[in-house]
Structure formats: structure tokens, C-alpha cells
Design brief:
six-stranded mixed beta sheet, five-stranded mixed beta sheet, binds adenosine monophosphate
């Protein structure tokens, strides 16, 4: 058996294994690695530093990633997937208010399951698509390092919830990466400036991140090398693109031209010209002058920095409002902030820095590093620490193996991921899978495999006496609390009735270091195949749940449906049923999609929420 040297207590790895830092961004992604002396650098050369976070899928299901994919955006909008990060770990109901933002088809399955994207009759989930982007970054890192890269730290926004973080980890696994840690982007940005590396330091940091399409501000507190997020605010649909649009609208207004009358191509070209003007004036050009042709008409396109600042004042003010809200939530005055870190290409607009300097003082602003690179650089610093290369930094106790529970289909749902710092407390909600389910078995497992059968069972208990409710309605909160001594307390509580059950477990009990190593190695070796198997299992579970709820729905509401509707529903259900025995995820998801599309109007028409509700949340089977 190959040996991996891992300190079970600290999570430290064998020295010398490169661990890269990855900024998996909404628009662009970057990968960085720390040099021997600990200084991080972005991997890539001149034109090859940034990998656009775009995936183009052709008719045969082959994918192009990065720049090549981005070039397909205008030509093949329906099969060029951009902004996949916005979909990670999200359900359709999370996204429906912004559905017109996306030019590709996101399956509206009217429930809380994670979204799927359809392109040329194939179904993809955001984890797979992000996995493709990560695989591209991995390959690039290998090319620039001249050695295999298998370990990474990946950054996510501070506001990412548990399911979005888990989705990011899974994407890493699919790409063949062992994700040592998921790090908050503002934490990474601070690390890039060396903030938080000195254990003596105690500071409050405000990280202002204005990118192309998203804005967020986070306030962090660092003490003894530990980062705590005090507050976050922002707008996930505000960024440099909005500044571009404001400039374009200004030019159109002057000419008295209606934006609506522009073709898609013209809109796109005008936005690009506006972006060019913005960058020019922000980079020191006094006066940008150009023109733009719309049919016979010639639009004068000029811009100065003062004009831009005035035109975009409402946008800038919106970001400042978020800064104030974040301060308020953190219970701090502006004077309580010790450092301000600027992240994202749009912080190159000089008036942004001016506004922040006005609030916090010029000397607190950290903007020496390239704002596009700072998150990846910081991820590489964290990676270097986890690789055990920085003796000056103490690693806190971590959980050596992931801890989770069994969900429908025998899947492992990780609640506390491997390498989490202890003590740790995580809660997650589950629901029932059949109507009137009174008992729920909570089976606790440890290990890195996606199917619980391959992991180590730690304990099992039953939450009894759940009040009779339709499937999907009960809210069962499962809490994992692991204390500093490594004792795990698992609780399960039905939120409405308050019934509760709990158990104490010693996860490490009876396991030798060799056994932990073996479990880790098995996990790494099977990671990609395991995630694929889980996605297939999830598709099967979703399909059979849909058959179940549709059946119940028809039983209850038979008289309200026509014969044709009933027989068509039956036929579509049967077709779906047949696919469930296959191992073809696309067939299952296709049949699920068709049954969903056909039956959704019934539920809407009958104003009965049973179909939608019953599918909500992660389910645990009846016992
Ligand atoms: P990011 O998502 O962090 O890569 O940021 C991309 C955004 O930064 C885009 O909206 C760009 O137009 C904007 N940007 C990049 N460089 C500049 C610049 N010199 N001046 C103003 N905006 C810029």
C-alpha cells in the first residue's frame, strides 16, 4: 500500500507535495502556487494567466473550457455555460428571479433539488461543469510546475452556504483533486497581504470585492491566526458589467436612441465599447472618443473619468451602503477597521478607492497586489500552510476523516468535512420521503466514500414520533457538534413538534493511524467514480420520488384531470420507471424532465402544492 504521510492530529501532509490554491471565480478562475520561500505566484504566462469560467458543450457532449469556450458565447449562447458558480449548490427556486440572466436552459423542476442544465439533450449539473473548469486549471498547473498536482485549496465567497461549499468540494473531486480545504475568498485575499500570518496580530479587516458581475463586502476578525467572519453583505448581481451598461445607456440617451431597438449583437458590441471606454479613463486616459454605428445612425461615444464617476454614482453608492450595513452587523464603526483589502477588477476604478479612503483613511487601503489575482495568491498561501511548509504557523486540530449521515439511496451526506478545524458545529435540515413517515433512522458514518456502504458506521439511532405530515413537510434538523476532545454529539430534532434525540460518539475510537490512512487513500483513489455514482443515484432517487408524488397527486385529484392527461401522465411515469433500472443518467434526467414538464401545470392549476412541496429538501427513507 502506498504511504501518505499525514499527521492525523494536525492534518499536515508529507513535505514537498505541491498544493495549489485555486480561485474558482464567477467569470474567471486562476491557480497559484507558493514558491520555496513561501511567496505565492500565479501559474501561467502572459496571455494564459486567467481561465475564463466558461464551458462550451457541443452536440457530441464534448467540452471546450476557458478562452475557447468564451469565444463561443455570442455564437452558441444556448450551449455555452457561463457563471456556473451562480448555480453551484443552488435549486431552481433559488434562481428563478434571475432566470433571464442565463442564455442556456436551466431545468425548471419546480423543487428544491439542485439544478441541472440541459444542452443538446444531455444533462449536466453545476458540479460537473465546475469540475471541468477545475480539471483545466489542474492541467494548467501541472504544465507550469512540471509535476502532478493532486491537492488543492479552493476559495468560495464568505456567504456560500454549506451546500454550495459541498458542491465546490465535489467539483474538486471530479477533477481529480483532493480538496484540503475550502477557504473564504476574503480570508484568502487577506492572507495574500500577509494579514493573519502573525499569530500575535489581532485586527479587523474589511474586504471590498467588486468584480465583473458580483459585489460583496466582508468584515473579518483575526486573532491568533484564526479568521472569523463577522459579517457579509453585497449584491450577487452588481459589478463592472453594470458600470458598462450605464455608460452605454448614457451614449444612447444623448442620441435619443432606445436600447430596446438594438439587436443582441449590437447590445453586446456596445457594451464592449463601453467597457473599453471605462478601462481607458480608469487607466489615465483623459478623454475617450469613439463612435458606434447602428444602421444609418452614428453614435458619438465619448467619456471622461469625471463623467463616469457621476453617471455611476448610484451604483457606487449601493456598494457603500453595503459597506455600512456590514459595519453595522459587525457592531463596528469605520474607525474599528484596521485594514481594507481591495479585490476584483472593478476596484481599479479610482473613485472606488477614493470613496473607501474617505471612510477609512488612505493608509488602511491595501491595493498593491493585482486585484484579479489576490484571491488565488492567498489560496496558495493557505495551501502552503496546509502542505506543512510554514513551520512558523501552527495548524489547529482537524478532523482526519469526514463525518456524515446516510440519505436516501445509501448516499453519504457529509456534515463535517475532513480537515475541518475542531471544535466544530454544523446543522443541516432533512425531510421525509413518504407521507405520514413517523420515524427517521439517523445513521452516522465516517469516511471519504460517496456510498455509506463503503464507509465506517459509527452509530445509529431513530427519531421517533414525527407528527403525520405529507412527505417533504417535516423539518428535521440534524446537528453535529465535535468538541475539542474529538467527541461527536449528534442530535436530530423535528422542528415543528420539538421531538429530539441525541447520541455521543467517539469517532476515532478503535481506529489506528494506518486504518485512517487506508480510508483516506481509498477515498482519493475512487473520488471521481464515486461522485459520478452518487450523481446517478441522486437522479434515480429524484426520478422515483417524482413517480411517487405524481401517483399520489393523481389519486387525490383524479376527478380534476382529463382522461388524456391521466393516461399521458401514466405513460410518462412508466417511461421514467423503465429508465430507473438503467445506468444512464441522461435517460433518467430526460424522462424526469418530461414528466415534470407535463405535470407541473396540474399542480399550478389545482393550486395544490403537494407535488412541489413533497420534493423539497434532502430525504431520509422510512424505516
Ligand atoms: P473580475 O471579475 O475581478 O475579473 O473583474 C472584472 C471586472 O473588472 C470587469 O467588469 C472589468 O471591466 C473590470 N476592470 C478590469 N480592469 C479595469 C480597469 N482598469 N478599470 C476599470 N475596470 C476594470
Amino acid at each position: 500500500m502506498p504511504k501518505i504521510s499525514i499527521n492525523i492530529k494536525s492534518g499536515e501532509l508529507e513535505k514537498g507535495q505541491p498544493v495549489v490554491g485555486i480561485d474558482l471565480g464567477t467569470t474567471n478562475s486562476l491557480v497559484a502556487l507558493a514558491d520555496k520561500d513561501g511567496s505565492p505566484r500565479i501559474l501561467g504566462s502572459n496571455n494564459d494567466v486567467i481561465v475564463p469560467s466558461v464551458v462550451y458543450l457541443n452536440e457530441e457532449g464534448k467540452a471546450l473550457i476557458g478562452k475557447e469556450a468564451r469565444n463561443m458565447l455570442a455564437e452558441k449562447p444556448e450551449s455555452t455555460i457561463f457563471s456556473v458558480k451562480r448555480l453551484l449548490g443552488r435549486s431552481y427556486s433559488d434562481l428563478k428571479d434571475h432566470a433571464d440572466y442565463f442564455s442556456y436552459r436551466i431545468i425548471d423542476n419546480d423543487n428544491e433539488q439542485l439544478v441541472q442544465i440541459e444542452a443538446h439533450g444531455r444533462y449536466y449539473n453545476p458540479v460537473e461543469l465546475s469540475g471541468m473548469i477545475l480539471a483545466e486549471l489542474k492541467e494548467k498547473a501541472e504544465k507550469y510546475c512540471g509535476q502532478k498536482i493532486e491537492k488543492a485549496v479552493i476559495t468560495v465567497p464568505a456567504y456560500f452556504n454549506d451546500s454550495q461549499r459541498q458542491a465546490t468540494r465535489d467539483a474538486g473531486k471530479l477533477a481529480g483533486l483532493d480538496v484540503l480545504r475550502i477557504v473564504n475568498e476574503p480570508t484568502a485575499a487577506s492572507l495574500a497581504y500577509g494579514l493573519g500570518l502573525n499569530p500575535e496580530e489581532a485586527k479587523n479587516i474589511l474586504v471590498y470585492d467588486l468584480g465583473g458581475g458580483t459585489f460583496d463586502v466582508s468584515i473579518l476578525k483575526i486573532e491568533a491566526g484564526v479568521f472569523e467572519v463577522l459579517s457579509t453583505h453585497g449584491d450577487t448581481y452588481l459589478g463592472g458589467d453594470d458600470y458598462d451598461r450605464t455608460i452605454a445607456m448614457h451614449w444612447l440617451n444623448i442620441a435619443g436612441y432606445d436600447y430596446k431597438n438594438l439587436s443582441m449583437r449590437e447590445k453586446q458590441a456596445l457594451r464592449l465599447l463601453a467597457e473599453e471606454a471605462k478601462m481607458a479613463v480608469c487607466s489615465g486616459e483623459m478623454n475617450f472618443n469613439s463612435s458606434f454605428e447602428i444602421g444609418e445612425q452614428k453614435l458619438t461615444c465619448s467619456l471622461t473619468l469625471q463623467q463616469l464617476e457621476a453617471l455611476a454614482e448610484a451604483l457606487t453608492q449601493k456598494t457603500i451602503n453595503s459597506v455600512n450595513l456590514a459595519l453595522n452587523d459587525a457592531g463596528l464603526e469605520s474607525s474599528g477597521i484596521d485594514e481594507v483589502v481591495l479585490v476584483g477588477g472593478s476596484t481599479r476604478m479610482p473613485f472606488i478607492k477614493k470613496r473607501l479612503a474617505g471612510i477609512f483613511g488612505t493608509d488602511k487601503i491595501n491595493d498593491n497586489l493585482n486585484p484579479d489575482e489576490v484571491v488565488a495568491l492567498g489560496a496558495a498561501v493557505e495551501a502552503d500552510i496546509l502542505a506543512g511548509n510554514r513551520r512558523d504557523i501552527l495548524l489547529l486540530d482537524v478532523t482526519p476523516l469526514s463525518l456524515g449521515i446516510e440519505t436516501l439511496g445509501g448516499l453519504m451526506d457529509v456534515i463535517i468535512p475532513r480537515n475541518s478545524k475542531v471544535p466544530a458545529r454544523v446543522g443541516r435540515q432533512y425531510t421525509t420521503s413518504v407521507d405520514g413517515q413517523a420515524n427517521m433512522k439517523i445513521s452516522v458514518y465516517q469516511g471519504e466514500r460517496e456510498l455509506v456502504a463503503e464507509n465506517r458506521k459509527l452509530a445509529e439511532f431513530t427519531l421517533k414520533g414525527i407528527p403525520a405530515m405529507p412527505a417533504g413537510l417535516p423539518k428535521i434538523e440534524v446537528g453535529f457538534l465535535i468538541n475539542a476532545d474529538g467527541i461527536l454529539k449528534v442530535t436530530a430534532q423535528e422542528v415543528r413538534s420539538g421531538i429530539k434525540q441525541e447520541i455521543d460518539i467517539q469517532p476515532g475510537y478503535g481506529l489506528t493511524d494506518e486504518q485512517v490512512e487506508k480510508m483516506l487513500l481509498d477515498g482519493f483513489a475512487n473520488a471521481g467514480a464515486d461522485v459520478a455514482a452518487r450523481m446517478l443515484q441522486e437522479a434515480k432517487t429524484e426520478g422515483s420520488q417524482l413517480i411517487y408524488t405524481v401517483q399520489r397527486f393523481i389519486e387525490k385529484n383524479a376527478e380534476m384531470l382529463s382522461e388524456m392527461e391521466k393516461s399521458q401522465t401514466l405513460q410518462l411515469s412508466e417511461e421514467l420507471h423503465k429508465t430507473l433500472n438503467s445506468d444512464n443518467k441522461d435517460d433518467i434526467l430526460g424522462a424526469t424532465d418530461r414528466l415534470n414538464e407535463f405535470t407541473r401545470p396540474f399542480a399550478e392549476r389545482l393550486m395544490d402544492e403537494a407535488v412541489g412541496k413533497a420534493l423539497r429538501g434532502n430525504k431520509i427513507g422510512e424505516i
